[in-house]
Amino acid sequence: xxxxxxxxxxxxxxxxxxxxxxxxxxxxxxxxxxxxxxxxxxxxxxxxxxxxxxxxxxxxxx
Length: 62
Hints:
This is Small CPxCG-related zinc finger protein. By secondary structure, this protein is α+β, with helices and mostly antiparallel strands. It contains 1 helix and 4 strands.
């Protein structure tokens, strides 16, 4: 789902069910899960969520 933030001209994208950035499995948000923050060249920030530390490590090696 995309929506516009009227205070700033920024597009916010949300996933109904968060999925792992590496394997695309659904993430259990009732427990801790690893996240990596990436800053793009334009200054925007992207959060990459992972189902576990193994997927986070595999994604980081790519």
